[in-house]
Amino acid sequence: MKNFKIAVIAGDGIGPDVIEEGKKVLSGIAKLDGTFNVEFTDFPWGCEYYLREGRMMPEDGLSILKDFDAIYLGAVGYPGVPDDVSLQGLLLKIRKGFDEYINLRPVKLLKGAPCPLKDVKEEDIDMIVVRENSEGEYANVGSRLYPGTEQEIALQTGVFSRKGCERVIRYAYELAQKEGKSLTNISKANALGYSMVFWNEIFAEVGKEYPDVPTSSLMVDAASMFFVKNPKRFQIVVTSNLFGDILTDLGAAIAGGMGLAAGANLNPEKNFPSMFEPIHGSAPDIAGKGLANPLAAIWSVSQMLDFFGEETWGQKVIDAIETLLLEKKTLTPDLGGTAKTDEIGAAILEILGRK
Ligand code: NAD
Ligand code: IPM
Ligand code: MN
Question: Is the whole-model pTM more than 0.90?
Answer without folding.
Answer: yes
